[in-house]
Amino acid sequence: MPGLLLRALKGENTPSRPTWLMRQAGRYLPEYRALRAEKGGFLPLVYDSAAAAEITLQPIRRFGFDGAILFSDILIVPYAMGQDLAFLAGEGPHLSPRLADHALQALQGVPERLLPIYETVRQVKAQLGPDRTMLGFAGSPWTIATYMVNGEGSRDQHDTRAYAYRDSAAFQAIIDAIVSVTVEYLSGQIQAGAEAVQLFDSWAGSLAPREFERWVIAPNAAIVAGVKALHPDVPIIGFPKGAGEKLGAYARETGVDAVGIDETIDPHWAARELPKDMPVQGNLDPLLLLTGGTQLEKRAIEVLEAFADRPHVFNLGHGIGQTTPIAHVEQLLGVVRGWRG
Ligand code: CP3
What we know:
Helices cover 48% and strands 13% of the residues. By secondary structure, the chain is an alpha/beta fold. The protein has a single domain (4-338), classed as TIM Barrel (Alpha-Beta Barrel), CATH 3.20.20.
């Protein structure tokens, strides 16, 4: 029998809630910080498949989560498309040359940069119990494009939104190129052992409705169609962070099997508005894991109750914070595992 998480993603209303947390491997874990220090940084860790597999498994060993998410980053795709990638301490990621002033066509793809990631998936899968689910992922084209165009993160994706208005044909070409690499990349992860995949559209919330249709819904639909043509039975979770009232259209029009919701969405609204029987993932505010206490417990129960009548994967509304106390993660898991609605 497949694990609870895969069952929920395939539409089953499971007897207890499968749980994993976005960014569950990372700096809040001392065992992560130790291995990162030994390897000398984030990218060397990602490119050492044995170490990346070990990092992927650390939170499974410690907390028994139902899903193991590949330890990597969404910016591996632009790196494979030929941009240079660096993670500078305290500054976040940098990509160069930035496409705001450099043509996409001048980049030389380096597809071999994807291969060590597949090896990580293979190594995790070989060590994962049969009741746990191996999750692959990629960034969605709009979110990836914001980094490729601007060269680094930005508060409201101002430069990329302006670029997309100014030269929508050139921007469409960037999006199309990301779609095609992403279909290949997700298929490679699935062939290596990923049993479900998530598309992270972290900056979906900055777009006006028409642009949301063009740069979020359409390219995610193209990726889903491309991956489904090769792997029709592998569930795809779409996570359009910040989509708000556009979430319903996203859920209906992209073809994703399950939708991840962030903490700004009222779970009761989501339970009512999203297609009946579609699995939902989310959406506890990660900040509640910093505070803990009764507030954490009350809000976790509210999420569990709201999704009692449909398949649900318990998760946060966004990644876990790096100063999260481990005791609060344990407290949360006690609530979710003990809940009988
Ligand atoms: O969920 C997981 O644990 C899987 C691994 C994963 C990472 N990043 C590891 C990581 C995943 C799925 C991501 C996704 C990602 N990366 C997103 C989309 C999700 C989101 O958070 O909105 C984005 C926008 C990125 C780009 C990125 N990577 C940024 C902006 C940063 C710097 C900010 C930060 O937290 O340091 C990263 C670095 C990064 N990616 C770290 C980790 C564990 C921190 C690396 C370290 O310094 O140890």
